[in-house]
Amino acid sequence: SETASRTDRTIDLAVIPGDGIGPEVVAQGLKVLTAVLPQDVKLETREYDLGAKRWHATGETLTDEELERLKAHNAILLGAVGDPGVPSGVLERGLLLKLRFAFDHFVNLRPSKLFPNVTSPLAGRPEIDFVVVREGTEGPYVGNGGTIRKGTPHEVANEVSVNTAFGVERVVRDAYARAQARPRKKLTLVHKNNVLVHAGHLWKDTFDRVGREFPEVTTDYLHVDAATIFLTTDPARFDVIVTDNLFGDIITDLAAAVSGGIGLAASGNINPTREFPSMFEPVHGSAPDIAGTGKADPTATVLSVALLLRHLGYEDEADRIDAAVTADLTERGAGAARSTDEIGDALAARVSG
Amino acid sequence: SETASRTDRTIDLAVIPGDGIGPEVVAQGLKVLTAVLPQDVKLETREYDLGAKRWHATGETLTDEELERLKAHNAILLGAVGDPGVPSGVLERGLLLKLRFAFDHFVNLRPSKLFPNVTSPLAGRPEIDFVVVREGTEGPYVGNGGTIRKGTPHEVANEVSVNTAFGVERVVRDAYARAQARPRKKLTLVHKNNVLVHAGHLWKDTFDRVGREFPEVTTDYLHVDAATIFLTTDPARFDVIVTDNLFGDIITDLAAAVSGGIGLAASGNINPTREFPSMFEPVHGSAPDIAGTGKADPTATVLSVALLLRHLGYEDEADRIDAAVTADLTERGAGAARSTDEIGDALAARVSG
Ligand SMILES: CC(C)[C@H](C(=O)O)[C@@H](O)C(=O)O
Ligand SMILES: CC(C)[C@H](C(=O)O)[C@@H](O)C(=O)O
């Protein structure tokens, strides 16, 4: 389903380096991307100056013109945006979520894997190799809601989670297809249908109904609270997880933590219909405290480039990046910590080798 | 603030043993309660037959008469309710949440502590000793919302999170007071104010404003996704956490997991105004798979009894239970696993000794 037309052999990529360590890790992602692509594939990139710096300078988060121009690219690579000077919500609503919603990124794909030599906070190094399919365009993220009597003792602030049959079914179907394509063929729905009964009923009902079309896939349901327990005590039980936008936000950070930290967590905001460009980004933020020190680990961005390639149909190239990361982590000794650039160089050398 | 009037020296306790292991752990909780109370305190208990068995037999979850009768008690001790035959949501909405809402249990208190000799899934046994103050009467738990076009491809299911200045302020104030009373005096607000901007603004604004009345308390804010990372990688950073109903549900299960499992996690659904009885229960469920085997660990229920005593003003007795649990876990050898009853006996012996 993700095999794109490769007729023209050009990747027209929008690049949003962003703030803090964003530009540093994106540079390494592009280095590895350039190294892995066959000679006959032309890579065109165009940089977009978006994020905190831009907002401080102009007050703009993303103009309609920029949104329109971004639409024409094959995909978007984003580093990280934000700094402590931007009020909470401004870049989230005005840029990140705006892109996810405008480009209908209904599959937010977040793989978790415990790589060799990576330190997990969990005792005994469990096997961790699962992927979360987080819904990306609905739920409590829609921005529905509001406040009355703001700032008074009678303030009421509401947030509305909106869930549609259309929106739930397409992401559940995508998750089943991904589970079907994996060796273990297991899919877990995570929700809280004992309390959020309306949304929960829609999710569970859709999950059960679509499941009848995938008889080979083993299914399982967990409340989100119980899911956090199993992610900590038995992450090996998970293969593919499908869940709503907010629960997905929460459990993927936890998943990243137990598999060694967000320095390695990649993500794709995917529009599987290809009507709009998909966007790939590391899960980590802009980490202003280490920006410019060369300490940022670009691996999450490089793994996000692999997701990007897979989405565009470059399966072999994506496999080579994944293998390079595994080899790199396996073979690194107890030597000195490597800089952002050195890790990028090492990965680029491996994929072109 | 929790020092009750002890003039009449009677505890009139409602007991809801419930289903599965519920009655087994409640029996031990009552055993320890009886053992710890001074001779001049009269303990009166009345059992309420509520839960899955009752629902299967009568179709009732909680009648208005029962609710009225429960209201007259000093406190409620609940074991666990539910079995796989009850549709999801029936006992939650009809019994557990009904009690929390009817009795205005706006402070859902959930301490987490890594006791001696308890196995944490985290490597290196971090120091864990914090308490979550979870809001209990608002947020996405209010049951607001609904479905249109149910069962059709055009279904829309909404869930509304309702947050009021009144509701947020009283729980935030309670959390500050608890932080103020602890040696570290640190309070962390957990929310997601970069996405849930309406509710997030109310929470953060209230948190900052009330904080000015507690200048000794150090404060901190974390998004809920980031909080799951720190709960796994650095739980020692937490002292008191205040958060909304749903985030509290999620992070307290995670907190229980990292501190050795829900077999030890106690909770109080507290109405600090004492207008209505507060309810104390282990965080774990009815575990039908081990019911009747003597394998259930009653410690979470016994620790919930300590919370109950503290709420009723029996601080010394509560301290003795906490100390007994610590001593019991410290001194238990690598011997054979103990039964539910044996653990209850051991704890009862310690508190009366
Ligand atoms: C920055 C924020 C809007 C975002 C989210 O909540 O989705 C982030 O936490 C993520 O997971 O990508
Ligand atoms: C059973 C359920 C309604 C409840 C909740 O979600 O609050 C439980 O998970 C808890 O944490 O006490």
Automatic annotation (TrEMBL), chains A, B:
Q: What class of enzyme is it?
A: oxidoreductase
User: Known PROSITE patterns for this protein?
Assistant: IDH_IMDH
Question: What catalytic activity is recorded?
Answer: (2R,3S)-3-isopropylmalate + NAD(+) = 4-methyl-2-oxopentanoate + CO2 + NADH
Entry note: cofactor: Binds 1 Mg(2+) or Mn(2+) ion per subunit.
- Its chief place of residence is cytoplasm
Lineage: superkingdom: Bacteria
What InterPro entries does the database record attribute to this sequence? ICDH/IPMDH, IsoCit/isopropylmalate_DH_CS, IsoPropMal-DH-like_dom, LeuB_actb
Q: In which pathway does it act?
A: Amino-acid biosynthesis; L-leucine biosynthesis; L-leucine from 3-methyl-2-oxobutanoate: step 3/4
Keywords on this record?
Amino-acid biosynthesis, Branched-chain amino acid biosynthesis, Cytoplasm, Leucine biosynthesis, Magnesium, Manganese, Metal-binding, NAD, Oxidoreductase
Q: Which residues bind NAD(+)?
A: G285, S286, A287, P288, D289, I290, A291, G292, T293, G294, K295, A296, D297
Q: Does the keyword Hydrolase apply?
A: no
For the Isopropylmalate dehydrogenase-like domain, which residue ranges apply?
A: 10-347
The residues that hold Mg(2+) are D225, D249, D253
- Which positions are annotated as binding substrate? R100, R110, R134, D225
Which E.C. number(s) belong to this protein? 1.1.1.85
Spell out the residues of the site Important for catalysis: Y141, K192
Q: Which GO terms describe its molecular function?
A: 3-isopropylmalate dehydrogenase activity
- Cofactor(s) demanded: Mg(2+); Mn(2+)
Q: Where does it reside?
A: Cytoplasm
- Subunit and interaction comment: Homodimer.
Say what the protein does.
Catalyzes the oxidation of 3-carboxy-2-hydroxy-4-methylpentanoate (3-isopropylmalate) to 3-carboxy-4-methyl-2-oxopentanoate. The product decarboxylates to 4-methyl-2 oxopentanoate.
Sequence similarity: Belongs to the isocitrate and isopropylmalate dehydrogenases family. LeuB type 2 subfamily.
Q: Mind telling me which PANTHER family this protein's record contains? A: D-MALATE DEHYDROGENASE [DECARBOXYLATING]
> By what name is this protein known?
3-isopropylmalate dehydrogenase
Native organism: Streptomyces oryzae
